[in-house]
Amino acid sequence: MAENQVQNPQTEKVIALSASLLEPFQGHPFRVASGEEMEQLKESIREYGVLSPLLVRPRGDDRYEIVSGHRRKAACEALGITELPVLVRNMTDDEAVILMVDSNIQREHILPSEKAFAYKMKMEAVKHQGKTTSCQLGTKSRSDGLLAESSNESARTIQRYIRLTHLIPSILQMVDEYQIAFNPAVEISYLTDEHQRMLKEEMDACQATPSLTQSRTLKQMSQTGTLTREYLHHLLTEEKPNQRQKFFLNQEDVQRYFPKHYTPQQMQQVIIHLLHTWQHKRGYNKDTQER
């Protein structure tokens, strides 16, 4: 039944397929993470079923590649559901990549690394489509513009996200965990892999990360071949005027106290406000502290 319906795109319909026939998208940059959102999705499927069918494309040998719906498949598998509603559509590789990214990039919680690799995949697909349709569509500016049109971010921001794909995995993980800010991370991405590994070792040893200004200096020194481990240690141990002492809160530890749509910046603002309130209730003020 499924085969007859798939052959003619004009009769495209939602059909039921066994989960065992569905394969993840090759190079899928978005993680299927457990947590509160997954539990809510499972509860919704348990009560109402899969409201939105998965989008897949045929891969041959009676198997299908998921373009959109990896989280729904994972939730169904966790619930013991073995047959899923899917919409089968014939797509080129480039079309599938673009649709896969567009269907996920607007999700509420996306890690910087997920955005980075997703934008990179889409950029390459858009450029490839341009080369196969018109020599003028393959330009960098044209590709940047097309990406920006389908997202809420500027072409420059998208390019900076793509730069994060040049970070070694251990530093990229620090970005995902908000241990390194986005802008310094972009500058660090220009360091050679060897210099990045040296930097990671020194950051671990010194329990410190470079500021944006320091990261730009490291970028220049790496590009000129003058960056040394000794300088890295000196830079990371020097006292920063606005960063004399710092500590990090793990986002997972505080996320459960906030509405799920809150961004890290919003959570930080609430925490600072609560600390000010706590300080006031204890009878302290700035003048008292300075005396």
From TrEMBL:
Entry GO MF terms: DNA binding
Gene Ontology, cellular component aspect: chromosome
Entry-linked InterPro entries: Chromosome_partition/occlusion, ParB/RepB/Spo0J, ParB/Sulfiredoxin_sf, ParB_N
ParB-like N-terminal domain sequence ranges: 15-105
GO process terms (BP): chromosome segregation
Family from the record: Belongs to the ParB family.
Protein name: ParB/RepB/Spo0J family partition protein
